[in-house]
Amino acid sequence: MHHQLGVNLNRQKGVNFIIFCNKITVSTYENISEKINIQIEAINDSIANETINIQPMSKQLEEALNIVPSLALFFETGDGEIKNKICGSIFSNKIRFSNKEVRTIEWKPFMEDIKLINRELQNIKTKKAIISDGLSSMAPPLDRSCS
Fold first, then answer.
1. Residues 6+ away with beta carbon under 8 Å from 116
2. Domain boundaries, the chain
3. According to a count of CB atoms within 10 Å of the terminal CB, is the N or C end of the chain lower?
């Protein structure tokens, strides 16, 4: 955006120089300048909008993480529309029921990632603690006797 703004400002300077040298008519100058100024205003508006929407990553992450624990509650207390939206955000395909049962459903990729992280965390919690003296198992044993 800033590059485009610089380009248009330079174009305006060039047009100003050309009118100063009497190379174009005043009406041509006004037409060109108006178009350049419209582009400059649009770029400035875009830059202003980008600035307004900028938030620290920590705030956005906190907002996302606060949604996840509440999801089950939203599903339990929500109406049919809310439940459909939640299911649509979790599963890739439409859910088809047969006698109150459902076939295996494909998860959306981000949910697969979350499930993988969850499994990895569960594995860490269930591994037994290993007492280690901090030495690599690949290193030859040390002679710990006092000689």
1. none
2. 2-53, 57-125
3. C
Torsion, CA 69, CA 75, CA 76, CA 79, rounded to 10: 150
Please give the helix or strand (H or E) that residue 41 lies within, else none: helix 26-53
**Entry pTM:** 0.41
User: Which tokens belong to 37?
Assistant: 């100024």
**C-beta separation of 56 from 62 below 8 A:** no
Encode pLDDT of 11-45 as tens digits: 888 888 888 888 888 899 899 999 999 998 998 88
SS in 3 state form for 85-139? HHHHHHECCCCCEECCEECCCCECHHHHHHHHHHHHHHHHHHCCCCCCCCCCCCC
